[in-house]
TrEMBL record:
Lineage: Bacteria, Bacillati, Bacillota, Bacilli, Bacillales
Recorded family membership: Belongs to the binding-protein-dependent transport system permease family.
Organism of derivation: Paenibacillus mucilaginosus 3016
Membrane topology annotation: Multi-pass membrane protein
Places the protein is found: Cell membrane
Keywords assigned by UniProt, alphabetized: Cell membrane, Membrane, Transmembrane, Transmembrane helix, Transport
Any matching Pfam family: BPD_transp_1
Protein name: Binding-protein-dependent transport systems inner membrane component
CDD domains with a match to the protein in the record: TM_PBP2
Length: 305
């Protein structure tokens, strides 16, 4: 009985074949639309800045050069800023995910009498904010300005991430938690030994969200640590380089014209493309390791949230 069904599955009807062809064409077009901007930025970043002014760079550099990358990495502050960005991303992600998971587990416990009130209070913050100035005054009053911890502590709990993890924990079999308590495990031991290993898909999804936010963040550096170069991040340094390039573009163009093409300089377009590649590559390298958890964790959180 299995052979006819298997052989019949190999022969699709005409509507099914048409659907498959259309689906493949659509997905290929979607892939091209998604990848083209990044590939174009990559080509511009490796193309000579003088030549890029002419335009016409699409998928492949016309005049290969590393001058754009040399210009950015010639800034000594970039290396210190990269170290700070890596530290804030790693520490911020680990601390935020762990604390958010603990809070999410607490809000799923029926014996926690303030469970509903706390849930509503956290969700309320998603719709209403104190604003930029009160937030700055709060951070300053807590003594977090000119401090590395201003990158970590204000972002410890993310409400959306809390909902995703809480929804995942609510889907776990209650019998597993009860058996752990019968064996003498306390709430914290149950959380560490039972809950955390079973919520890896949700934790991986939230970790990606937090890591991307921490890595790309630069406005908090501008607000709280702009006067302390030792705490500057890569994104903020790249933003300053781009700003410097924009202000000096006119004088650089004059030098280029007077030298009749013998002077090599960078342009805002080439620097912007190079910055995009530098800022994107670390996240792109991390994503494949979390991809198998991403869809499952996000789907469960979205359905039950």
């Amino acid at each position: 009985m299995s052979e006819p069904s298997a052989s019949g599955a190999r022969y699709k009807s005409l509507p099914d074949k048409v659907f498959d062809v259309c689906n493949i064409i659509f997905m290929v077009c979607l892939m091209i639309v998604t990848l083209y901007p990044f590939v174009n930025m990559l080509a511009v970043s490796f193309n000579d800045a003088n030549d890029s002014i002419r335009g016409g760079i699409y998928l492949w550099p016309r005049m290969w050069t590393l001058e754009n990358y040399n210009y950015i990495f010639s800034e000594a502050s970039v290396y210190q800023a990269t170290l700070i960005s890596v530290l804030r991303t790693v520490l911020g992600t680990v601390i935020s995910v762990f604390c958010t998971a603990m809070l999410a587990y607490t809000l799923t416990r029926p014996d926690f009498v303030l469970r509903k009130f706390m849930s509503v209070a956290f969700i309320f913050t998603m719709y209403f904010s104190g604003g930029l100035i009160p937030g700055y005054l709060l951070i300053k009053g807590l003594g977090l300005t000119n401090s590395f911890w201003v990158y970590i502590l204000p972002a410890v709990i993310g409400v959306f991430n809390l909902i995703v993890i809480r929804s995942f924990i609510e889907g776990l079999p209650e019998g597993l938690l009860e058996s752990a308590r019968i064996d003498g495990a306390g709430e914290f031991a149950t959380f560490l030994q039972i809950v955390l290993p079973l919520t890896i898909p949700a934790l991986a999804t939230v970790s990606l969200f937090v890591a991307v936010g921490q890595w790309n963040s630069w406005f908090d550096v501008f607000l709280y640590n702009s006067s302390n170069e030792n705490l500057s991040t890569l994104q903020y340094e790249l933003q300053k380089i781009l700003q410097t390039t924009n202000t000096s573009a006119t004088s650089a163009a004059d030098q280029f014209a007077s030298a009749q093409g013998n002077v090599t300089f960078v342009t805002p377009t080439s620097i912007r493309a190079t910055m995009t590649i530098i800022a994107s590559v670390p996240i792109i390298l991390v994503y494949p390791f979390l991809q198998k958890y991403f869809v499952k964790g996000l789907t469960v959180g979205g359905v039950k949230g």
